[in-house]
Design a protein that fits this description.
Radius of gyration of chain A: 13 Å
Helix content of chain A: under 10%
Oligomer: heterodimer
Number of strands of chain A: 11
Largest sheet of chain B: 6 strands, mixed
Order of helices and strands of chain A: EEEEEEEEEEE
Amino acid sequence: EVQLVESGGGLVKPGGSLRLSCAASGFTFSSYNMNWVRQAPGKGLEWVSSISSSTIYIYYADSVKGRFTISRDNAKNSLYLQVNSLRAEDTAVYYCVRAGSGSYYFDYWGQGTLVTVSS
Amino acid sequence: QSALTQPASVSGSPGQSITISCTGTSSDVGGYNYVSWYQQHPGKVPKLMIYDVSNRPSGVSNRFSGSKSGNTASLTISGLQAEDEADYYCSSYTSTGPRVFGGGTKLTVL
């Protein structure tokens, strides 16, 4: 069974940083592209960042470029998102999401970790 | 990275069919067959319903179908049921590499 378990969220002041983690199991992690998708309270889904299976290709939404860094450790079956210079508008549930094999859809989602940016 | 355009809400009665549209541009929806649809019930994690325009993952009811014409993709739900009441989001690959979501559509079953 595919499982994605996020951790690392919490309450942080504006300008602060966090490192989100996602532990993957139940599939060959190193063979799949991975993503972070977020959802602000009461709002829609927003794609945040993607990383290819071999880390060659990395993409970011304009709203987080220069502040967030995606990475992965295939040996540890883990995905990460370093979030810096946090703003109130970054408050959201952050989902770790697997990309479908050979395509660009999101087939498995974690339960999410809540990041709250507030003074 | 503009969001894809979806109607804010649609509604239908049990047994009816409804269609949710998702409009983009030739750089995303119109340019690639990589449109997907997600269902999200309140407080729950999004669930993949349609991928690559018209493919259904295993376990998804055949009452759900997808299509595309030009820059607009559509999700059709036939034989509407109370459990279909949820938020629905479309997503597409874009020529700039990233992915993009629609703003979401709230489906109400009357």
